[in-house]
Amino acid sequence: MNKLLIGILLCSIGGAASATPWTVDSKNSNVNFISTKKINVAEVHHFNSFSGQLDDSGKFSLTIDLASVWTNIEIRDTRMKELLFEVGVYPRLVLSSNIDLPKLADIAVGGTSVMELSAELSMHGKKQTLSIRVTIAKLSENRLLVVSTQPIIVNAANFALTPGIDKLTAIAGLTSISQAVPVSFVLNLTR
Fold first, then answer.
1. pLDDT by residue (tens digit) across 11-22?
2. Residue (of 47, 50, 103) closest to 77 by Cα position
3. How many Å apart are CA 100 and CA 136, to the nearest integer?
4. What is the pLDDT of residue 88?
5. Which Pfam families match (predicted)?
6. For a surface tag, which of 9, 86, 130, 148 has the fewest beta carbons within 10 Å of its beta carbon?
7. pLDDT score at 98
8. What is each CA distance from 99 to 14, 28, 58, in whole angstroms?
9. Which regions in the chain score pLDDT beneath 70?
């Protein structure tokens, strides 16, 4: 009888552990984007503050603090926060998607799987549905690596960012800043 109770207890603990949400380890993850100015001058930038979670229903959400933009030039960071992102009004970018949990569970430790995801990107008061291809590696039973298999092209016009880009172009005295911005990410998730 005691063995049966111990078995039931262990099974319930195991079930609770698998229901534990996955959390993005932001210290070991990154979200990058590339800006292109003067037609062919490209620079890689990133965000320093973001968080994310995958819950037990398969809902994934990544929230980026737009005020954490880092371009390696302080005045450009300030201008992007104020003129482009308008962080006083629109402080965050949110990417939401649903993950196929049975497919995720089928990945063996050390294995990978490529998934096509439909994701909603919410930024600057606008929303858009995007198709995102990710590669998921199961590093252990409690650790995943999720990588954008190809860059996600975010068009500034779809998020009412064109006026901000125009302001940045004028204030920096540039001939152009591209409105098509490639974004990529490497996310470590733990539970």
1. 444 443 456 899
2. 47
3. 12
4. 98
5. YceI
6. 9
7. 97
8. 21, 21, 5
9. 1-19
**14: its two tokens:** 């195991």
Name the residue among 120, 138, 125, 4 with its Cα closest to residue 62: 120
Handedness of CA 100, 66, 168, 164 (dihedral sign): positive
* Residue 37: strand pairing partners: 41, 177
Q: b/e per residue, 118-133, with b = 16+ CB within 10 A?
A: ebebbbbeeeeebebe
Quote the radius of gyration of the chain (alpha carbons, Å): 20
Query: Residue 145 carries which side chain, given as an amino acid letter?
Result: L
Select 20-190's CATH number: 3.90.226.10, 1.10.287.380, 2.40.128.110, 3.40.1190.10. Answer: 2.40.128.110
How confident is the model at residue 18, as a pLDDT?
Answer: 55
Q: Which residue ranges make up each domain of the chain?
A: 20-190
Indicate the average pLDDT of the chain: 92
Contact indicator for 134, 149 with CB cutoff of 8 Å: yes
State the number of CA atoms in the 13 A half-sphere of 45 facing the CB: 22
